[in-house]
Amino acid sequence: VAVVAFVATCGDGEIPGGALQFRDALNNFKAGDLSKHTFAVFALGDRSYAKFCEAGKFFDKKLEACGARRVGEMGIGDACDEDGWETGYTAWLPNA
């Protein structure tokens, strides 16, 4: 199974409400439990905030800690880029 997570960061580095169930599920896994799975994370945020893309970083680290194999570096979508998050997505997608 491949997991592709697009995760926005809310408020002060918080995980959005729609992703809390996913976070809770991941917290039930131990190291190695997801070793048969691959993943990619694209984090969305606004670099003007101190905890820029914090939620995406959390999921990226957590999936790896549970043993899933990363298929590419975490993508970053920055609302402050010229084309918003699409700038980072366009650069990330070919490598994901």
Description:
The chain has 96 residues and is of the alpha/beta class. 28% of the residues lie in helices and 22% in strands. Strands 1, 2, 3 and 4 form a 4-stranded parallel sheet that branches. The radius of gyration is 13 Å and the shape is globular.
Brief sketch in words of this structure:
The chain is an alpha/beta fold. The chain is 28% helix and 22% strand.
List keywords for this structure.
96 residues; four-stranded parallel sheet; 28% helix; globular
Q: Give average pLDDT, whole number.
A: 95
Q: Mind describing the biggest β-sheet?
A: 4 strands, parallel
Q: Class by helix and strand content? A: alpha/beta
Low-confidence stretches: none
- Gyration radius, in Å: 13 Å
The H-and-E topology, N to C, reads as EHEHEEH
- The termini sit apart by 15 Å
Total DSSP helices: 3
How much of the polypeptide forms β-strand, as a percent range? Answer: 15-25%
Count of individual beta strands: 4
Task: Name the overall outline.
Answer: globular
Relative helix content? 25-40%
